[in-house]
Amino acid sequence: MGTLSLVLSGLGIVAMMFHYTTHNIILGVVCTILLAGAFAIGTVVMKKREKEGDFVSNMYNFAMLGHGSAGVVLVVGAVMCVIANIMKKPL
């Protein structure tokens, strides 16, 4: 499941790059769904591992990597989306 989080995060990042170059609304929705899914799956896996006592944060953890990268890209993408939509409107 941790690998799924990392894969979804990577796919979401690629979809977001294509969304920014083409400004396609469908790609924007797809990348948001992929990144939100990666964020949620990463959170679930980390909480599950923490309950089992198997969670070590200083090791290479796919769930943590997918969760973190998806969270950062979601926040940055949302800010850029707001800025782009504000700039479209005349002052």
Q: How would you characterize the overall build of this protein?
A:
The chain is mainly α and 91 residues long. It has helices spanning 2-22, 25-52, 62-88. The longest helix is centred in the middle third of the chain and has 28 residues, at 25-52. It is elongated. The termini are far apart. The model has no long low-confidence stretch (mean pLDDT 87).
Number of strands: 0
Rounded Rg: 15 Å
Please state roughly what percent of the residues sit in beta strands, choosing from under 5%, 5-15%, 15-25%, 25-35%, 35-45% or over 45%.
under 5%
Poorly predicted sequence stretches spanning 5 or more consecutive residues? none
The SSE order reads HHH
Q: What structural category arises from helix and sheet content?
A: mainly alpha
Features:
single chain; 91 residues; mainly alpha; elongated
Tell me briefly what this model is.
The chain has about 90 residues and is mostly helical. The chain contains 3 helices and no strands.
